[in-house]
From TrEMBL:
InterPro entries the record matches: Carbonic_anhydrase, Carbonic_anhydrase_CS, Carbonic_anhydrase_sf
Alphabetized Pfam families for the sequence: Pro_CA (PF00484)
Catalytic activity: hydrogencarbonate + H(+) = CO2 + H2O
Keyword Lyase assigned: yes
EC number of the protein: 4.2.1.1
Protein task: Catalyzes the reversible hydration of carbon dioxide to form bicarbonate.
Keyword annotations from UniProtKB, A to Z: Lyase, Zinc
Lineage, broadest ranks: Bacteria, Bacillati, Actinomycetota, Actinomycetes, Streptosporangiales
Gene3D superfamilies per record: Carbonic anhydrase
Family in the record: Belongs to the beta-class carbonic anhydrase family.
Organism: Actinomadura sediminis
Protein name per its UniProtKB record: carbonic anhydrase
Length: 213
């Protein structure tokens, strides 16, 4: 079993992707999900990644990355929209808990992005606080449209990139950790049909040429 207590950003990223590969292959190991692990993490937690994802019920983080108790510090909102509470939670995971990796997890068929596209295209209004979610996704949709994109996949990828940039640009704490090489921020796009998590963008982590679309 991999010791995740002192991973580098790259090691944390590779550990996460290895878990997703096991999930996709249908051969999960279910690490850190037993009574011994439950007892081990009672005194303190040291997650190796902060996962900021969409609230979609089909994106259960510990399942799709085959991890267990104490491995992931999970923050989720509809459309992975980021307000002050989200930024504070992510900063806590990095600066207090010491996580070397922050993951923004989007996915295909995202309802928040679809609703925002509808609102931008034909003025479809949402009620209550759903409107706030749409307003926060709108900059990503407008940028994708301005770039000439028309496919759902491109809008999803654009929103993931926008969220990664927003986190690093708005959080001085996160930016300093990335600049120091202690933390990396990556954006992944999850495919509902086959369970794969594909790299979309990365800050503070070098990836092979052509690895990011």
């Amino acid at each position: 079993m991999t010791d995740t207590s002192s991973l580098t950003p790259r090691e944390a990223f590779e550990t996460l992707l290895a878990g997703n590969e096991r999930f996709v292959a249908g051969s999960p190991e279910h690490p850190n999900q037993d009574a011994a692990r439950r007892a081990e993490v009672v005194p303190a937690q040291k997650p190796f990644a902060v996962l900021f994802g969409c609230s979609d019920s089909r994106l259960a983080a510990e399942l799709i990355f085959d991890r267990g108790l104490g491995d992931l510090f999970v923050v989720r909102t509809a459309g992975h929209v980021a307000g002050p509470e989200v930024l504070g939670s992510i900063e806590y995971g990095v600066s207090v808990l010491g996580a070397p990796l922050v993951v923004v997890l989007g996915h295909d068929a995202c309802g928040a992005v679809a609703a925002t596209r509808a609102a931008v295209d034909d003025g479809t209004a949402a009620g209550g606080y759903v409107r706030d979610v749409i307003e926060r996704v709108t900059p990503s949709v407008l940028a994708a449209r301005a770039a000439g994109h028309t496919e759902d996949e491109d809008f999803i990828a654009g929103h993931i990139r926008h969220t990664v940039d927003l986190l690093v640009d708005r959080s001085h704490v996160l930016a300093q950790e990335v600049d120091a090489g202690r933390t990396a921020v990556v954006g992944l796009s999850y495919r509902l049909a086959d369970g794969t998590a594909r790299l979309v963008t990365a800050r503070g982590l070098e990836v092979p040429a052509g690895a990011v679309p």
